[in-house]
Structures are given as structure tokens and as C-alpha cells.
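Q: What would this chain look like folded?
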Amino acid sequence: MQPRTPQLNHATTSIAMDATQEFGVIHDQEPDGAADSAPEETITPLIEASEAYPVLEERIFEARDEVLLGFRILDPATRLRSPRVTEAGLETWGDLIAAVSARGVDVRILLTDFEPTVATDLHKLTWASVRGFHNARAAVDARPDATRTLQIVAALHEAKVGKMLRWVFWPLVWFRVRGMARAQGMQTGALLADAPGLAPLLGTRDASTLLPRLGPPPRLRPATYHQKLAVIDGSFVVIGGLDINERRYDTAAHDRPSDETWHDVSLAVTGPICADARAHFIDCWNREVKPFNQRVRRLRRFVRNMPALVERMDPAHSEPRPAGAEVGALRFIKTVSRQRRTLTEFGPRPAFMEIEQAHIDAIRQAEGLIYIETQFLRSRSVVQALVDAARRQPELRLILLLPAAPQEVLFEDATDPPHRHGEWLQMRCVDAVKEAFGERAAFFSLVNRYRQSTTEDRRSIDGHPIVYIHSKVFIVDHRLAIVSSANLNGRSLRWDTEAGVVWEDIKGVRAFERRIWDAHLGSLLAGREIDGNNAELFDLWREAAQGGPADAERRPYVAAFPEDQGRDFARKSWFVPDDLV
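A: My prediction, written as C-alpha cells:
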């Protein structure tokens, strides 16, 4: 099958949706002829999944030529939220993808796979999604008018641990694999069906009994595809930090138990940047086609019902625009790494660190206020840039929003060395920023206004359940914003594959920042200019954290970041690379 090339230059229309704001950018001065060929640029912030999911569902439903989806997690069982789509008789994302591909739209899903021996549960989740989409597609394949256009890659990042280190870790991996086999009652079928990546590591003593092989050790994969990117018909992109499953769905109220809350931000955009996003997806896809097909052929010897082989995409008309050709308010940025060719290397070789550099460049330009929402603050390079900026600009202030603790620590009770080392590294970064900024830096978390407990644990602050912060937003002086899939840690900025945008537009960024602050501060912000006195705005955040949930219109509310709990949990590990966490 020859993949289609979508029409990239057709005129785009404004994005119409409820409960969101759209910021159109009009370019009055264009070179001769450019006005006819350059698509209109629109930028629509999508705050929480309750805004993002319906928009994405509708655009996929309306797709004419091509749907490209690159996500860390994309569950076909996720319920559809758009009334317009559900009125067509579709209920889940599996139904949506099957229906769109059945009418001839090329659908490519680049789904993150995970190291099966270490991240086994995530590996199982990936392959459950692969099976789910193929099962949904099979339900319409029997139709005489159906065409086969759905292709899925479960992508294992190319970076592998050096050969010598694989043998060092092999005893630990061997015992872990043996434990998983025993937990399954040593039965071949269930374990290999759920986690096919374990198949090469397991032998059989008889027709049904599993035993871990004595060697060779597996090719451990420390990096992943962490991006969250959708490109539809080459002219519409959703990009940011939000994956797609029921766990990630939340509303602006966040009025649910802590483990069901999920604050996240994405952008829906049209315009010239869509060509860059599409070219990036195609590059990722084509790099993964050969190794994925090889894995499928190899695993077919052990596991039934493996997915179909996939094809490369035609790179024609998919090149990113040349440097200096950016038109509009948006610039596409990415993190990409490659395999190192050494015997003892643990992590990959960074190839593109555009997201890290964009943050550092923005910090160097900052004069009055930096606002950050991030899941982690562990990047030494970004923190050093913040420290330098604080010393250079005596009036510069910093507002930083962090979750009370990492998701695995909060909801999975993780206590292993990598998580403790990550907390240690984060507290070092927090301390460095606080020392440089002094009273000009403030760290916050979000919690629900409903007090539920008098017992303190990491899931609550002052008895109020936490709201989990997963967003990746960086705003400087109310005029420049970075929205991406990347956290401020070494893994996101140097190892994993990430995607994002730099947005430079005073009017648009100011309105975007206002929407976020309205959600967090509510009526406390009423009547105040978002780009007014930075000292006054900074004090407003502190007032919000001190005031508590007295304001009935605010759900959630701002609370001080619980540093003491992080310090108690933190432990440095000499064997855990900083960029791993």
C-alpha cells in the first residue's frame, strides 16, 4: 500500500469549540505570493482533558486524508467525550480510529513501548492498546467497502545500555523475570500474551512451563518516546503533555480523589508549524519501522496474534521548513537522542536538545517574571540558568508549580532508589533556586478545597487532597511561552523523544497565561491586569496559598509546595544517573 500525501496547503478554518479561547495570528506583511500559500495560524489553549479530548476527537472524526498520532499512552478503551462524535454511534477511541480508517483515511499510531523487564506493567499496557485497536479495526474489516489503512508501531527507543553493563545487570533482571514467571504459575500463555517482549528471555521446560534463560542478557532500553503529538491532514496539530486514557481525563474542577486528578495543558494549532510537526512524526515513524517489523517477525515464533507489519511513510513533501523560514508566532522544538556506541554507556547520546535550549534562552531574556508548571524540577542546566538570571536581574521573580510528589510515589507507593534519588535531586534544585532568588521565588502545589482528612500523608496538604500536576508550561514576562511534553529533568531534555512549541506573541501569551491563572486563582485575580506590577502578582500567589480554600469559587486552590515531605523521602544513590530521573 502506498501511503497518501495529504494536501498541506489548503486553507484552514478557525477552531470553534466551547469553553476555550482561540488566538488567531494575522500576518499583514508577507512576501509576494505568500498570502495565498501560507495557511492561517491559530493557537487554541486546551486546559485539562475535558477541553482537549473533544477537540481532538472531532478533528480526527473529520479527517480527510491522514491522522498521525504519537503518544506515550493511547488506550482504545477510552470513552469519547464529544457529543458530535458519540451521536454518530461511536463510544470509544477504538471505535473512532476504526471508523476513520475504514473510510480510507491513513491512520498511523506511534505508540511508546517500554523496556519489558523493568517497566513491565507499561509494556503490558502498550500491547493491550495495540491489540485493542486491531480488534476494533477487525470489526469493520469484513465490510465490502472497508479499506485497510490502520498501521500501529509499538516503538522501543533505539538507545540501549552498553554490552558490559547488560551483563552487570543481568542477575537482577534474571531474578525479576523468574519472579514474573512464577507469579503467572509458570504458564506460558498468559504472560507472553500480555508481555510479548519477555518471550526471548523465557524458555520452556515442557509444553507449558516457563523458565528464564541463562543468557544472553536483554538489550535494556533506558529511554522512551515521551511525546504527545497529533497531526491531522497535515494542517492541524495538538501538542503538549496530555496522553489519552481514562486516568488522564479530568475537568477544571478537579473535584475527585487525588489519584483521579490530572492537571494538564495542550495547544491546538494550525499554520506553518504543522509541516514541522508532521516531518518530525514521519522521521520518528520511519526510524522505527524496520526494528518494529524485525521484532514482530521474531516474536511470532513465541506469541500468536502479533500485529501486522508496517510500511515506511513517503518522505516527499514532509521536510521541515528551513531555518529562518518560521512564519508566525510558533516554533517547533524537540528532544531526540540516539544510541551510543560504547560498552559501558548507560544513557543515549543527545542529538537534538532544542527544548532544553529554548528554556535556557527564555530564562536569559527574562526581566520581570517567570511562571513554570512542571512535573519535575531536576535539570541542572535549567536550574543553573535560573540561578544566573536571579543574580543578573534583581527584580526577577519566579512562580513555580509542582505536584506534591511524583505519581509513582503518591499512588503506587514506590520507594526504590531511582525515585528516592529523583526526589533528592529535585530538592537540591529547589534549594539552589531558593538561595539565588531568596524571597523572589515561591513554590506551590494544587489541592482540592474539600478538607477530607486530619492525617498528613503525601496525598494531602493540610488535610486537603492534592491535585496532580502533569502540565509542562513555561512563561516569561507575559510574552513568551513554551508548551511541550518535556518536564524540566534530564530525561526529558536529553534522553527521551519529546515535542513542543515556543510561542512568542504578547497578546496571545498574555491571554493564555490569564486562562491558567484564572483556573488557579479564581476571583482573587478578578480585575487585575495579568501583565501589571509583577511584585503585586507575585504577592497575589502567596496570598492565595496562605488564604486556603475560603473562596467557594475556587476549585482547586493554591497551597505551598510541601518541601519537608520530599526531603524526608529523598536519598542520593551513587548508582542512579541524574538523567534517568
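The radius of gyration is 24 Å.
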